[in-house]
Amino acid sequence: MLEGIIGSLKNQIQIQTQVQILINKLKIPTAKTMEIKLLAKKDLTRDVQEQLSKLYLQLNSELKQLSLEEILNDEEFIDIGACFDNKELVGIAMMANYKVVSGYKGMIEDVIVSESHRGKGIGRKLMEKLLQQAEKRELNDVLLFSGHHRTAAISLYKSLGFTLKNSGLYIKKLNLILF
């Protein structure tokens, strides 16, 4: 009986070892390597800015990007959730905070997960980080816009409690600068 237990434990150890080897080969983020955090001015480096610029191109390659330093000039008006995997920026989400007559609001924009890291729950973790921050800021509403073609993103937003608002979003472009 003892030999059976020892044999079973050896099998479990072999399976765990094989799983770890597979994780390392596939470069799957783990709790040890992946970090989700809110960016602050103190986190800004040239490397982080360069990584953000490359990541943003996966969302929109046509618009000029503002620098993180410029965005974080007024930290009370913006929250930036970032996901790092071994110091590589693999996901980001931003929430602009403002107040109007109807209350305190947050607008989530620029949710981007690197193509090589999609499907691993990073978008969800970034959104959850921003929603926690919205609660800390005591915002009344958090809004976001998503293109109708982004079905995976829309499913994520719905699973987090977002509902489609019965209104249209209109935009007038001002000072459009292409780079």
Commentary on this structure:
- This protein has 179 residues and is α+β, with helices and mostly antiparallel strands.
- The protein has two domains: 1-30; 32-159, Gcn5-related N-acetyltransferase (GNAT) (Aminopeptidase), CATH 3.40.630.
- Helix content is 36%, strand content 23%.
- The protein contains five helices and five strands; from the N terminus they run αβααβββαβα.
- The chain starts with a helix and ends in a 20-residue tail after the last helix.
SSE topology:
Layout: H1 2-26, E1 34-38, H2 46-56, H3 68-71, E2 78-85, E3 88-100, E4 103-113, H4 122-136, E5 141-144, H5 151-159
Parallel strand pairs: 4-5
Antiparallel strand pairs: 1-2, 2-3, 3-4
Order of helices and strands: HEHHEEEHEH
CATH architecture verdict of the largest domain: 3-Layer(aba) Sandwich
Cα end-to-end separation = 72 Å
Gross morphology: globular
* Structural class by SSE content: alpha+beta
The overall average pLDDT, rounded, is 83
Biggest sheet strand order reads 1-2-3-4-5
Radius of gyration: 20 Å
Count of runs of 4 or more consecutive helical residues: 5
Instruction: Give the helix level as a range of percent.
Output: 25-40%
| Major sheet details | 5 strands, mixed
Q: Any low-confidence stretches, pLDDT <50, length ≥5?
A: none
What is the CATH class designation of the largest domain? Alpha Beta
Number of strands: 5
Integer tally of domains: 2
CATH topology of the largest domain: Aminopeptidase
The amount of beta strand, in percent, is 15-25%
Q: What would CATH call the homologous superfamily of the largest domain?
A: Gcn5-related N-acetyltransferase (GNAT)
